[in-house]
Amino acid sequence: KALDKAAECRVLGSQMTKDWRDRVAAMAARRNFLQVRRADAVYVVGWRLAQGRDQFTGKSEIDPRETPALDVGGGTGWACQWYVDRFASGGEDPALCKLYFFDDAGPPWARKDPATEGKWSRWSVASQTWEPLPGKPPKPSGLYAGIGATRLSSRAERAIRGLYGLVLAEQIVMGKLDRSRLELPMLLSGACDGADETFGEMAMEHKHGLVHFFGPGDEEWASAKAREDQHSAFEHVVKELLDGDIVSQAFDRAAESRVLGSQMTKDWRDRVAAMAARRNFLQVRRAD
């Protein structure tokens, strides 16, 4: 019954063929029902279906109206649907729906949405859309499901580990960096044109780890090349961390040597902020 109910939202139009149940079975979807049936919250790391692509493979072209609203790809998408179905009309309180999704971009045919890629989002039952979070979700507690794609980027691995402790940016700022979990050698940079993108290219070519840090609004400065080839290394940092005491104190300390004499105007902090400088602190704070 749960399979048929979920199919009403996932197997639409031309996808409702005679063998649709067999095709879903091939996605190992039924066992996923057990993961979410009684979970208080669900944490998912995966990829989104592109509009106009089928829910079985994510590759075949279909009528765009047949792509599920809850567009997580693969068998993981069925687990998400079963969880959300609990909060349908007449069911549990929609306010208690805690479906958190980290968009890892996934395969080449997956949907690439700057609003969600490389970030955590929460599903809204009311609007049937993903709502990006300003940072990471609440730390897992109670009975929860942790599910997702079989292939993860290093960015996604860090996102999962960050749920249980400090994310990489927090570790760097607070002096609690766990090097044993890093993909060393690792390059920390900013994905801008020129030097950043070239260092990133060479790091990837030599199988080094790579992280490009972005504060709020910084991603607009990312180069086209970095967006195309290095997007899996993009790591977003919340404003609260960049504006916190540790970074602010380092900011003022550096200003003693850089913002001298007539340059020490009332708006000097705003002018430095326009240079996207605060996120640069993360690149060098713990670098060897």
Low-confidence segments, ≥5 residues, pLDDT <50?
none
Judging from the principal axes of the Cα atoms, what is the shape?
elongated
Largest sheet: 5 strands, mixed
* Rg: 21 Å
The count of DSSP E runs of length 2 or more, i.e. the number of strands, is 8
Helix/strand order, N-terminal first: HHHEHEEEEHHEHEHEHHHH
Distance between the termini: 57 Å
Provide the structure class: alpha/beta
- Count of helical segments? 12
**Average predicted local confidence, pLDDT:** 92
The percentage of residues in β strands lies in 5-15%
Q: Helix content range of the residues, please?
A: 25-40%
Q: Order of strands across the widest beta sheet?
A: 4-3-2-1-5
Detailed description of the structure:
The chain is an alpha/beta fold and 288 residues long. It is 33% helix and 13% strand. Strand 1, helix 4 (74-85) and strand 2 (99-103) form a beta-alpha-beta unit. The termini are far apart. The mean pLDDT is 92.
